[in-house]
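Researcher: Last one for today. Full complex below.
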Amino acid sequence: MFKDLFRTKPKYVTVRPQAVSIKQDTSAGLWQKCPQCMNLIYKKGLEKNYYVCEKCGFHFRIGVWERLRQVADEGSFEELHTHLASENPLDFPGYSDKLAQAQEKTGLDEALIIGQAAIQGNPCMLAIADFDFMAGSMGSVVGERVTRTFEAAIEEDLPVVIFSAGGGGARMQEGILSLMQMAKTSQAVERHNRAGLLYLSVLTNPTLGGVYASFASLGDILIAEPGALVGFAGPRIVEETTRQKLPNGFQTAEFAMEHGMIDKIVQRKDLRHTLGRILSLHGKGLVPSA
Amino acid sequence: MRNGLFEWEKPLYELELRIAELQKFTTEEDMDLSREIATLEKKADYLRREIYQNLSAWQQVLLARHPKRPTTLEYIEMIFDDFIELHGDRCYRDDPAIVGGVATFEGIPVTVIGPQKGRDTKENIRRNFGLPHPEGYRKALRLMEQADKFSRPIVSLIDVVGAYPGIEAEERGQGNAIAECIRQMSFLRVPIVCVITGEGGSGGALAIGIGDHILMLEHAWYSVISPEMCAQILWKDSTRASDAAEALKLTAEDLIGLGAIDAIVPEPLGGAHKNHQEAGANLKAALRENLGALLKIPEDSLVEKRLARFRRLGQWREKAVVVSEHR
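Model: Here's the assembly. Have a good evening.
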């Protein structure tokens, strides 16, 4: 009965290459400049290389469908809870317009999509955030979707994999309701944890504020992409408050790794394989790999 | 603000001064001015209500930050007996920005925790203006887990602008310290009453704000972000904090409507700083009522009820799903 809630209207996604949004995109032509090493990269090559600069390893930001294409088994994704739509509960000035703009820009209805998928044959509940949608921030709908991801995973006895890109943290425009999503999602994580199930949290650039200080940092295993910004208060706020010069590489994935905040930094091209291996190691009854 | 008085209180203050002068005159010159005094007092009463019952969101924020507002330790002293402060997170250091310990509340042993602002500049520097580091949250969690072990109810008194945004705080995992506090506090099997006594700023407040009953003092504020920071981010102009305060819906009255808090604890007219004893007595009465109610709930259903309370929060609309949409 409860299961049926998650089973309505299965949708199979075909990946649209044009939905890939790269904020760093400055040229409209065939070439893309790497913002880190200034190298000119042939766009077709960039696409083949997981949107990572071949020369310096800079990880370009990618949208949800490209992420899905890179990590999930083809055709395995079944999107859930697409019927939840954001409102403007506080009548916050300009919020409705911002939502509409973000929807226009990304083609998404909110900053996070969720669904059931398989990674190298391992079924899991998968959630992916999109930074280009209001900085990947968490309002009521994102919080509700994250919560339902864990609830569905408990119901289906599945692990959870979340790609967070919540640089905007808890979304200001929904005020206290956004703050409460931090509580709600953390509680869902813990219920899933108590069911003995695995939660893999992948921190992509950037994961900050209320997203990091709730579900994103509560994974059994925390993985980050190279160079991803990971932390609580953003670097600008830290700099302004303390009036101190920030150390080199402050709040990068490497910094978080050095200080014991994450388990692993994984190159984008290796993500699918690493996730697949970790998932299969935690599977119920191991199946020998081919 | 001058001499602890806000700009908007000035007309009232001037009127009060005139009344005092007339009273002095009456006794010194033996003249009967009681009629004039009565008229002025009536006017003052009216003005008092007019001013304090129509405070804007931003005025409430300023009130909640009044330097003479009772701090956590002052409330503890007024409300609890035999408070024994306990220290340290057993990992790094004792964070003076969060205090906690065991005490009795009307004979019942309880654990009480809360951020502590300084009462003067020297203490404020020592306590980092009440802005906790990760070790503060880890200490709070350690004390709350002990409360769970010994079946003691928990009272969390919250007055914090936010968790400290510093280099070392980040190095020691501020975000994760907050997340762990939220997660563990949610599943403790003892009654928890949280009270926003002054400022309730963001994750730094929520970290110790997961409870069965969440109360808020009349002029306290509680929000996802401070109004100044919100204005800075949205409009690149921190002087528009009053607009942000309005938009964020951060007053006790707003929050009860959004389901984030359960009850409002009245303050003395003009704010808690005007009369500490009255503020303390009001809070004590509220705690008596709320703890009493929670102690009657069986242990097994307490956590489920707490989780259900938070599970409901959020607002969205269900839309019709067009399968081909965007694909």
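The longest helix of chain B spans residues 10-29. Chain B is about 50% helix and 15% strand.
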